[in-house]
Design brief:
The complex is a heterodimer.
Chain A (H helix, E strand, L loop, with lengths): L15 H20 L3 E2 L5 E3 H5 L11 E3 L5 E4 L4 H9 L11 E10 L11 E10 L4 H17 L6 E6 H11 L3 H12 L3 H11 L3 H12 L1 E2 L1 H10 L3 H19 L6 E4 L12 E6 L8 E5 L2 H4 L7 E7 H10 L11 E5 L4 H13 L4 E3 L6 H11 L3 E5 L4
Parallel strand pairs in A: 1-5, 7-9, 13-14, 13-15
Antiparallel strand pairs in A: 2-4, 3-4, 5-6, 6-12, 7-10, 8-9, 10-11, 11-12
Helix pairs in contact in A: 1-4, 4-10, 5-10, 6-7, 7-8, 9-10
Chain B lengths: L1 E6 L2 H12 L15 E4 L4 E6 L4 H6 L5 E5 H7 L4 E5 L5 E8 L14 E4 L2 H11 L5 E4 L6 H5 L4 E6 L3 H5 L2 E10 L1 E5 L1 H6 L1 H17 L1
Classes of the chains: A alpha/beta, B alpha/beta.
């Protein structure tokens, strides 16, 4: 039997030393979300496939699919946002006066070829959704909380890039680009592929000025300076609104003293037409994928039948721990403080002693294999247990 | 320290020459030994010599910060990367080629064609996405020209430089799928976390390309 069974592709055991650290991190983040007024929900491990496939937010081939007993198609939990949106749209005693709604989750997600966990098909995300609030203050709250979350998880080297999808939409309108050209340029911007952008601009016969404006997008990163340089060239209302939004977000983040972690990246557009406003990603050293992903997706609740703005983020706990370990963090399995053995007829006293010590907060093992005092010492040495106690007298 | 993944062979040599001209000391990379990792701590560069089709993978995972690789490989692998510069060398075309009898629209008349290629993803994307037809793709690893000659496939999708191999075997280019050249790709996280090193490098590379 030994070695005959494997875990499926993309799935791993979480070993004791990592597991202890991971659970501790999850608890810290749970407390953090609670301190910000977010309430945790657990959504089912499986949704009806329609919940994910109808809104078109998710590529269907990335979903783990199965059927229920009636043959209806189910999909394993792919993310936290879509189930939260489905839940929010269906709340029975919904009171609009109580908006915005603050929800959070810490759950395992399942994706084929998912980048969320660094190519793991199962990974743990912690995230929040702020629903029923529009505007820069809500946007900034979520970005600030994502930074606090990463710091709380132990990530010190953090870079967060913030983009605004409406900035590109506005510029496209200003330049009079049609839909097909838009999606082609969007794709190129996402790949920072200035060659394609330039070629496309030339084929459209854009003026030199307009071409420059398009070419500014993929490379523009900075803070207020970037916003200013776009403000000089942009005339479209939508684009100007987007710039104002970014400026206000930076103002709030400055109040949190978080400006050092963020930069504006005009080329961050997101690969799907899911985001409706600002969008952000968080990065650290030693992992090739973003650890934080977030943004505003105002249509996400509406598709389930209740119009509500929505902004949120998720942090991959799995990826964060991988990063921390590669950055040099050494993890240890939880220690055992005491092992208690006992002579024949002394079990009752040993049990009482163990209970007492556990109440005092010690990690205590009660020997079950009848070791004598000497064997107990040897075992404790070998297993790295700090102390061995041998009970020889009935209390 | 920047880690650069190079496609073993001619492309690597040209990339190294370009980097040298851009002012980077690449002595380490010119080591003619069979070492796969060539590092120069003083210059802050580490080169890894990889199989071309693996370069996008190294860069996507962040094992390398940037890489030099042909557009053909990028199209085939479809990885999430930043594609920041066209180096201009390694130029060729990705083509549909076949017996000369199939030119001038004759190829389109064959239903359920069988197409041999080293590039199944590019082939599928082109025929399903652009030409809107279902095809049977036969994956081969080399000497693709053989397939239509021996009756394994109706036509092929492959890179064409001069077209001489095709001509000598009674084949010709029927359609062009894409123009190919060497590209610089960058990992999405490195672009942010190592911007101070990577951005100047891209700028200097682009300056060199503009001179060519």
């Amino acid at each position: 039997m030994n070695g005959k069974f494997y875990t499926p592709d993309g799935f791993n055991d979480t070993l004791p030393e990592i597991c202890a650290f991971k659970k501790e991190t999850e608890n810290k983040l749970r407390q953090l979300f609670l301190h910000h007024g977010y309430r945790e929900i657990e959504t089912p491990g499986f949704e009806y496939l329609d919940v994910y496939s109808k809104p078109g937010f998710v590529a269907e081939e990335q979903l783990y699919k199965m059927t229920d007993m009636k043959g209806r198609l189910l999909a394993a939990r792919y993310d936290g946002t879509v189930p939260a949106a489905r839940y929010a749209a269906g709340i029975k005693d919904f009171d609009p006066a109580l908006l915005p709604l603050r929800l959070c989750y810490i759950e395992n997600m399942y994706r084929f070829g998912g980048a969320g966990g660094g190519k793991q098909n199962e990974f743990t995300q912690a995230g929040v959704e702020l629903m029923g609030a529009s505007g820069s203050n809500a946007d900034a709250e979520v970005i600030a909380l994502s930074i606090t979350t990463a710091l709380e998880a132990g990530i010190e080297e953090l870079q967060v890039s913030i983009g605004q999808v409406k900035l590109f939409d506005g510029i496209a309108k200003q330049l009079g680009l049609d839909e097909a050209t838009c999606s082609k340029i969007k794709e190129a911007i996402n790949a920072k592929d200035s060659v394609t952008i330039e070629k496309t601009a030339d084929s459209l016969g854009l003026t030199k000025e307009n071409k420059e404006l398009l070419l500014m997008i993929p490379d523009a990163t900075g803070t207020y300076d970037i916003i200013e340089s776009f403000e000089k060239k942009v005339t479209d209302e939508t684009a100007l609104e987007a710039l104002k939004n970014l400026r206000e977000i930076l103002d709030v983040l400055d109040e949190y003293d978080y400006l050092k972690y963020v930069s504006v990246d005009a080329g961050l557009l997101g690969s799907v037409d899911y985001y409706t406003g600002m969008i952000f990603k968080g990065y650290t050293y030693e992992v090739g994928f973003p650890i934080i992903s977030g943004g505003r997706y105002d249509g996400s609740v509406g598709v389930f039948g209740r119009e509500m703005e929505c902004v949120g983020f998720s942090l991959s706990i799995t990826l964060s721990i991988t990063a921390l370990m590669r950055q040099g963090l050494e993890l240890e399995a939880p220690s055992v403080d005491v092992i208690i053995g006992y002579a024949e007829g002394c079990r009752s006293a040993a049990v009482k002693l163990a209970q007492q010590l556990r109440e005092d907060g010690e990690n205590v093992i009660l020997d079950v294999s009848g070791k004598n005092a000497e064997e107990l010492d040897e075992y404790a040495d070998r297993a790295g247990i700090c102390a061995a106690m041998y009970v020889e007298e009935e209390a | 320290m920047l880690t650069i993944a190079l496609s073993k062979g001619r492309l690597a040599e040209q990339a190294i020459e370009l980097l040298e001209n851009a002012g980077y000391d690449c002595t380490a990379a010119k080591d003619k030994s069979r070492k796969l990792i060539l590092e120069d701590e003083k210059v802050g560069l580490r080169f890894i010599m990889a199989k071309p089709s693996d370069v996008p993978t190294y860069v996507e995972y962040g094992a390398a910060d940037l890489g030099v690789v042909g557009k053909d490989t990028l199209l085939e692998e479809g990885r999430q990367l930043y594609e920041v510069a066209d180096l201009g060398f390694g130029r060729c075309r990705m083509c549909v080629a076949g017996p000369v009898e199939l030119m001038n629209g004759k190829l389109d008349l064959i239903p359920n064609k069988r197409i041999a290629s080293k590039y199944p993803n590019i082939t599928r994307a082109y025929f399903e996405g652009v030409k809107k037809e279902s095809v049977e793709i036969i994956k081969l690893h080399g000497s693709i020209e053989l397939a239509p000659l021996i009756g394994l496939a109706d036509c092929i999708v492959d890179i064409v430089e001069s077209g001489r191999t095709l001509k000598e075997n009674g084949l010709d280019v029927i359609e062009t799928v894409a123009d190919i050249s060497a590209r610089v790709v960058v990992n999405r996280v490195s672009m942010k976390m190592k911007a101070d090193e990577i951005r100047p490098m891209i700028d200097r590379i682009k300056e060199q390309v503009a001179k060519l």
